[in-house]
Amino acid sequence: MIIPCFNREGLLPETLDSISAQTFSDWEAIVVDDGSTDGSLSIAQGYARRDVRFRALCGDGERKGANRCRNKGLAESKGDYLIFLDSDDLLASTCLENRVVAMDRASHCGFGVYLTEIFAETLGDRGVLWNIPNKTDDLHRFLSLDAPWHTTGPIWRRAVLQQLQGFDEELLSFHDWDLHVRALIAGIPYFTERVPDNFYRYSPNHRTAMNIVSCSAVDHLHSHERMFVKTLNQLQWASLLNSETRLRLGGMFWWLSLRWLRIKPPDVNEARRVWTKAFQLTLVSPRHHLEGLLLLTVYRFGRGGRLASIVQRGWPSQLLQPGSSTSFLKTPVSLLHDPVEAILSA
User: Fold this and answer.
1) DSSP 3-state assignment of 241?
2) Beta bridge pairs of residue 54
3) Which pLDDT tens digit goes with each residue over 243-261?
């Protein structure tokens, strides 16, 4: 397990305790501290002194970001299977045991995916899943920003992560989205298990800062654009750029255009530029391009809701899907007790 960490002294022990409690004993956990200014590194070092299966790595004192920490942990790790765990999230006690057995059986698969349950302060206090499997192609879901699984959801074979060259260290956010999309584009075989065995800490008062930065900071918006273009090129190289994936990518550019209108102050010029880029990349038609430019202009002045409802009736649904999932962070855990068909049709 690889755990990037920055200033988590209040939550890191609970995460590391969930690893210590595993029913599978042959593991290593590498905490890569990213220049914490609190006691996080000392806590990780304390666990490492008491249990040699823990290792604590520290950077050079300058923050490098979670992606570089994950890649450093990947380079230092020794196991054949790897899981990326955030420093405030938890594992069920049987997580490793069940995943290792499943990977051993599915020798043809490069990774396996498990469900993630959301909690705020204590396990079970929210009772919802990160997302749920359905009949839509997983790549198509990612391209509509409806991420089917979370960072800790997969267990990876080392060879696959090496093939993918780990995490993209140039990205400011969307780190796991990018890795998962690259794995799907590469056609790496995988399996999914409808079992929640890891827990993602998420509440209205937690991680809010990062979520806001990802969707509103200028440098992050530029990072998203570069990633979307990179994804386009990868789809094209893999002969997966077709009418469906073009439209879904177009929808991502529309989503990004709207983000430029929600920063302070709104930047309509950047919004229009991003949407024009989608047209130049042949992701949207001339008509949708012109209609989008019109809507971005009227949105700038706080208007256009009624006009948009009229204009966008003629837009393909894929252009409007990003961020509109009805299952992301909303699906009750109780749904898992229903028949499989009910889950698949959710």
Assistant:
1) coil
2) 29
3) 999 999 999 999 999 999 9
Among candidate residues 156, 51, 18, the one with its CA nearest the CA of residue 100: 156
DSSP 153-207: SEEEEHHHHHHHTSS-TT-SS-HHHHHHHHHHHTT--EEEEEEEEEEEE--TTSS
Integer Cα distance of 112 and 92 in angstroms: 16
Count Cα atoms within 13 angstroms, Cβ side, for 73. 31
Nearest residue to 319 (alpha-carbon basis) of 269, 272, 276, 284: 284
Give the pLDDT band (50/70/90) at residue 205: low
Q: Please give the backbone phi and psi of residue 194, each rounded to the nearest 5 degrees, phi first.
A: -85, 55
Residue 135 exposed, middle or buried by CB count within 10 Å (0-12, 13-18, 19+):
exposed
Collapsing DSSP states into helix, strand and coil, what is residue 114?
A: strand
Q: Quick one: which H or E segment has residue 248?
A: helix 243-260
pTM of the model: 0.92
Structure tokens at 346: 């959710």
What is the spatial order of strands in the sheet that 2-5 belongs to? Answer: 2-5, 29-33, 54-58
Name which of 7-21, 199-213, 217-231 the model is least confident about. Answer: 199-213
Q: Tally Cβ neighbours within 10 Å of residue 83.
A: 23
Contact 41, 56 (CB under 8 A): yes
Q: What pLDDT is attached to residue 342? A: 44
Per-residue pLDDT tens over the stretch 67-106: 999 999 999 999 999 999 999 999 999 999 999 999 999 9
Encoded tokens for 249: 């990518």
